[in-house]
Amino acid sequence: MARYGGVGGVGGVGGVGGVGGVGGVGGVGSTGLGDFLGAGAVGPYDPLTAIGLQTTAEGIAHVAGSGDAPQPTHLPANSKKNMKRSADWVRASLYLTDFIKDLDISVSGDDTTLGFETSTLVKITRPTEALMAAQAKWVRDYADLRADRGAEIQSQLGFPTEYFAMILALHPAQSRHTLELITATQVLSAHVAMMVKHALAIRRPDQVDTRILPMIATPGHGAFPSAHATEAHSVLTVLLALMEAWASHADNDDRGKLLRKLAERITVNRTVAGVHYPMDSWAGAALGQAIGGAILGRCGVAHTAKQITYAPTDTDFFGDELDRLIKGETVAADYGITVGAAVQSTQSDVFTWLWDKAAKESHTHSDPGS
Question: Which residues form the Phosphatidic acid phosphatase type 2/haloperoxidase domain (predicted)?
Fold first, then answer.
């Protein structure tokens, strides 16, 4: 799989955790910071260098005198001006804390509701046992695509940042903060998806039908909703808005179509692999657009997420049909999706700092990342 310097990496099964970092030193992800873990950290010195530094300090320190240290000036307290001074993984902690503190999940019977600030974003109904059994057939049928999509499936076990980078011509030399925004969106989405998975507690397809025989290790958490679908569609939502802010691609419409199709393909690949039902994809994609919209609000972007209620039905997943439903268009089938009012979240300093940096990384900006 192609690598982009220290950007992104192969996460743990299910998309949380990972190896590598955004523009920095890699680390093994087990804290929930995923690709951010260790990014921007120097790491320990080797023993020889540590001893050399110590003896050098002892040998030269006397020339600086023995008086009092000079009085420093304070850094601005609680200010986004300090963001650029922090390692990537520190900023990741700030993004995560800033977002999660306004998140609320409530469970009533078979319904799990995700709220953000004072608004409801998504309400998802737990599928019945009969629906799980019926959806297993879709998973078995999708296995025919495994030979064609095996490389994609394996390389997308973690966050598939490289696939989004391919479409938008991203490179860490010019797109450092855009890649950080993508990774932050993925990490936040993974956290939220795990919270919803825990609440709904749905068995994986191979635990329902032994004939499914997944081509990858079954993740150690519930199936519903799909975290990959959540992450892909939240990134899609954020990147479509970022492309509008850039206004630097003459073929914006075509790139937008490619991003939408990519999010759908990443999502469906998990069903091909044998670890997700199509209904997981619907739930995850609906959740992802809501999270993406909430992140954009935090970034100070006038973008509204749509409230979505999902009551699973026995249908396949189609990303373009979800787009049509969100736009208020009529579709032929009953996918169990009901779209409600628009929701706009409030901005925060840490996210506006990141957005402002990423917005300057358009292909026509004279000083990328400044």
Answer: 189-295
- Provide the pLDDT for residue 302: 85
The conformation of residue 207, written as its DSSP 8-state character, comes to G
- Hey, what are 152's tokens? 């994609």
CATH number at 340 reads 1.20.144.10
Dihedral over alpha carbons 58, 59, 60, 64 (to 10 degrees): 50
Q: Which residues pair with 306 in a beta bridge?
A: 342
- Give the whole-angstrom CA distance, residue 356 versus residue 139: 42
94 pLDDT exceeds 70?
Answer: yes
C-alpha closest to that of 307 among 101, 117, 95, 109: 117
Q: Which of 310, 362, 301 is nearest to 200 (CA)?
A: 310
Q: Model confidence over 306-362: pLDDT tens digits?
A: 899 999 999 999 999 999 999 999 998 999 999 999 888 999 999 999 999 999 998
Q: What residue numbers bound the domain in which 335 lies?
A: 100-359
Res 129: pLDDT: 97
The neighbour count for residue 264, using CB atoms within 10 Å, is 23
* Domain count for the chain: 1
Has residue 33 been placed in a domain? no
DSSP H or E run through 216 = none
